[in-house]
Amino acid sequence: MKKSLFVGALIAMAGLSFQSCEKLSSINENPNEPSSVDAGVLFTEGVRSSVNTSVTQSYLLGNVASQLAAKTLRAEVGEYSWNAFPNTWEQNYASLGNIIEAERVAETEGNSQMQGAAKVMKSWVFTTLTLAYGDIPYSEAITGSTDGNWFPSYDTQEEIITGNGGLLEELALAVQLLNEGGAIEGDILFDGDAAKWTKLANAMRLRLLMYISSQQDVSAEFADIVTTESLMESNADNGILTYTGSFPNEYPLVPLKQGDFDAVAISENAHATLSSLSDPRLGVYARPSNAAEIFADPSITPTYKGAENGSESCDKNGSRLGYAFYNYPGHAQAGTMAEGIIMTYAEQQFLLAEAAHLGWISDDAATLHASGIQASIDYYNADFTSTSWTDFNDYLTNSGAAYDNTLNSIRQQKWLAMFFTGLDNYFELRRWYIQENGDWTQLPFVDAPCSNTNNDALPMRFLYPGNEASLNPDNYFNAIDIMGGNTQNTKMWVVQ
Question: In angstroms, rounded to a whole number, what is the distance separating the alpha carbons of residues 495 and 458?
């Protein structure tokens, strides 16, 4: 909000000056320069910036907080010394400015499909913000330039997700709009395919319902979406941004410094789980510890090691992340860089498997679980030749990855599949942690980080950025009062 408030103040001051210069400004107007920005241009930038933010969040926060990766330097995330992570707040709200304006322009022009796609993206970004921070500016956010309100109130998380005009309602409305006329201009995600946007919106509805399932019975609504709406059918429907390899569509980790690459490694828990399964994704998620030697002599056998989550006093000697995520001096380079993930078919299938396990839907949990695993392995083109298995069926049958009538079998494979999925891998771990009443022993693929600073407790949220106290003080302090504090252990509505 800092950027929007600052820009708003400039506009307000500029308005005082321009009032007396109206005639002069009209003389100097350029008839060849558009007075408003095209919705497609706004949408392109909104999609790109929000997905780029998500990729960076996943690298520095989500993968580490979910224990799929570990910080080897500046270990605050892994040791649970959390702060506001202000880039998460500021960059997501900045992206919303373009997305919401694209939605407004599309509505003005009567372009229903464009409006629907913008609602999907808006809902995704707001979901990230509220699940990270709790109560946030929502209904009055990004409205200063249209209604002059530069001090937006904070809506409660329950209202944001389930209230009138809330995220679930907005996603349902998006589905309706996407089935009407229009064209999705500037669409760098699905190239204007409204059917794919519809499937993504419905999958997001399932994800959001599962997040709030501990607070209310969502089984009927979940089942209704499954039986009446279109869902992703394969990896071809994945909500992913494919990068072209050149500015401005370059994978956002590519420009990082070598030291940034050294600061994150595959986690000990992820390495142990993948190794125990002889899972082919290990060679995708991590590059060998002896990658430099293999670069000089490809016949050398790769070796991998995981770094401990926790403080810098823990064992941080782990394998760097895989070739597709960045280029490293003296190592082989990936032929194709990774993509920016919003949501995948694999994640959807694990949601359906969990719903089947819980009895919400009548489908077979084992079949859905298997399809989620296969979708993840296929998405990464993971090669079984480097494993103990001949093919996927051999892996599923003999590795221990198959559904065994327990939630943990679904949790483990979903966890592995959500590598680099924004902050949602952390949101899922938090949900499972709460379901098990904070008992790490009930989640056998993760544990309390080494030498952590939070009494072994998984943090529940990010702190509000400190500058909110000066930019929007009344609403900020009121939100803290309603939330019951502004600490990493303050429990938001979805985890109470």
Answer: 12
